[in-house]
Amino acid sequence: MANEKVATIKLYPADPSKYKSNPPAYTGPATVNGDQNFRASAWKQEDKSGNTHLSVSVQAKMESTAPSGGYQKNDLEELDDKIPF
C-alpha cells in the first residue's frame, strides 16, 4: 500500500535563541507531495529504556503578516486626539 503523502525533509541544528519555549533540536525545509511550502522541526526524546528518538513535526510555512513595504509610523501631528487618556 502506497503512502498518500510523501514527505522529504532536511534537518539542520536549530538555534534555540529563536524560540520562546521548547526549542527543537533540528529544523529545516520539507517537501510534501512536491509542494516545498513546508517546514520541519524535530525534538530529541528519550524513552524509558534510555534510547533517544526524534519526534518530527511537518507544518506549512507561515506567511508574514507584515506589509511588503513594512509598517509606517503614525504622524502624530495629524492625529485628532493629541492628549493621551
Describe the structure.
This protein has no helices and 5 strands. With 85 residues, it is mainly β. It has one domain. Strands 1, 2, 3, 4 and 5 form a 5-stranded antiparallel sheet that branches. A hairpin with a 2-residue loop joins strand 3 and strand 4 (35-46). The radius of gyration is 21 Å and the shape is elongated. The model has no long low-confidence stretch (mean pLDDT 83).
Distance between the termini: 66 Å
Helical percent range?
under 10%
SSE series: EEEEE
Ranges where pLDDT stays below 50 over 5 or more residues in a row are: none
Number of discrete domains: 1
Strand content: 35-45%
Oligomer: single chain
If helices are DSSP runs of H or I spanning 4 or more residues, what is the number of helices? Answer: 0
Largest sheet: 5 strands, antiparallel
- Overall 3D form: elongated
Instruction: Using the CA coordinates, give the radius of gyration.
Output: 21 Å
Mean pLDDT: 83
Number of strands: 5
SSE class: mainly beta
